[in-house]
What we know:
Elements: H1 18-23, E1 50-56, H2 68-74, E2 78-83, H3 109-126
Antiparallel strand pairs: 1-2
Amino acid sequence: MSLLAPPPASQGPGPLSPSVVEALDLAFVKRGGGMAHGDHVAAGVGLGTEIAQLRPYQPGDDIRRIDPSASARTGIPHVREEVPERQLTTWIVLDVSPSMAFGTADRLKSDVAGGLVEVLGRLAVRRGGRV
């Protein structure tokens, strides 16, 4: 038996029951209702996959946004503006250094952190975001 880890049968807090996870919620400052991709409002126009509008090129516009098809059809350069993505991307970073092998007789820090990552991931996905 190692001094660094409790016996395998007693590691970790154990899985959370579905009712406990359902009772939890992540709160965000701004939320939209009924969005197609997620529950979060994106402000203005920006990078995305859905087109918001095509408009004639103006000096100062980013030349990477020029739409070659529309420019060829009309004979003048056109800039493509897109609707920004509406999903909230949640980044979860987990420490996997040797210090996470420390714990009490009941559980390791790494087991508790793993359970937290699982719950946060489920909550973010339930809100329509991506992890």
